TrEMBL record:
Homodimer. It catalyses: 3-methyl-2-oxobutanoate + acetyl-CoA + H2O = (2S)-2-isopropylmalate + CoA + H(+). Keywords: Amino-acid biosynthesis, Branched-chain amino acid biosynthesis, Cytoplasm, Leucine biosynthesis, Manganese, Metal-binding, Transferase. This is 2-isopropylmalate synthase. It comes from Enterococcus saccharolyticus subsp. saccharolyticus ATCC 43076. Pathway: Amino-acid biosynthesis; L-leucine biosynthesis; L-leucine from 3-methyl-2-oxobutanoate: step 1/4. The lineage of its organism: Bacteria, Bacillati, Bacillota, Bacilli, Lactobacillales. Its cofactor is Mn(2+). The keyword Lipid metabolism does not apply. Belongs to the alpha-IPM synthase/homocitrate synthase family. LeuA type 1 subfamily. One of its GO terms (cellular component) is cytoplasm. It is an enzyme of class 2 (transferase). Mn(2+) binds at D13, H201, H203, N237. The chain holds residues 1 to 385 of 507 of the full protein.
Amino acid sequence: MRKIQFFDTTLRDGEQTPGVNFNTNEKVQIALQLEKWGIDTIEAGFPIASPGDFEAVQAIAQVATKMTVAGLARCQKKDIDCAYEALKDAKHPQLHVFLATSDVHLKYKLKMTREEVLASIKEHVSYGRERFEKVQFSPEDATRTDKAFLLEAIQTAIDAGATIINVPDTVGYSNPTEYGALFAYLIENIKSDEEIIFSSHCHDDLGMATANALAAIENGANRVEGAINGIGERAGNTALEEVAVALHIRKDFYECESTIVLSETKRTSDIVARLSGFAIPKNKAVIGGNAYAHESGIHQDGVLKNPETYEIITPQLVGVHTNSLPLGKLSGRHAFTTKMAELGYDLSDEEVQRLFKKFKELADKKKQITDEDLIALQADEVRRS
Ligand code: KIV
Ligand code: ZN
């Protein structure tokens, strides 16, 4: 089984979510939970961005024991020096240096030529490598970069000492076929004496961030970057919990493993939701409130007979206590009688017949039927009889 490393950027790219601002204490709490979840590397922040970011990176560097702690830097010496300072207490520090490579970024944002970009990559990756054993380089907007130039930029970074190459789909423009093929092309054409880790970094603008990350893995990427609950700039980053669970559930297909402790997934997601103030949508894959809920009669009947009929993930796998069978107008007799038994009612066939009819009438008027509704229906039935 090929090992896939998990790089979590909840505290850096994830914090770029408009409206999210973690303080140092909150960042440390999240970082410690991420370490429990089993990630390989945490991107603790962008140390030069603010004194608060610097302090948080430093605090995480001091408490992390197993995981590598990375800090982000632009291709600027002052950024690299600042990241070095913030990470100097880390047991396993890593520099993450980036520079855009697409023409649109060069022309309008950086106002640099391709030659200048290559020179800057060479200068700053080497400068970083003099201070850090592990240097990651990201050609920002890689998926909208001319392919030959992207290869040249990445080869320049490798020649200057980068051993981790991250390929960002910065604006979520790519699709699984294209993104996977890009990895295959880069891995095939890069020359290096050292082992290079190729990493995916996807954004969800077109709703393909998880699919793109998995396509990269299928095509040789051995690291995935993302954020818990998929938080991040605009539509967000790859939701790491989705990748972790997909690799596990479809081990038959991906033939990969990771160090992620899946039973800590829900706890990790809950902490990030609480501290970010971003509630998890009910229908969110893997950790949404409805991910293990079955409402229609046919599904409920199947699940009561054997959960495998409609559940590919057991809730317990990700640390969710149990599945649920919420009662609504589509629910069937099997789920209804099971619920009534759970509530302590031993109903005769005749009582079930009458109560189920009343339940359906009520369910037509209400979105969801609660335990209290069922208790009231039963009490009414007793009163009338
Ligand atoms: O999306 C992106 O390009 C980034 C880089 C800084 C890696 O977040
Ligand atoms: Zn990003």
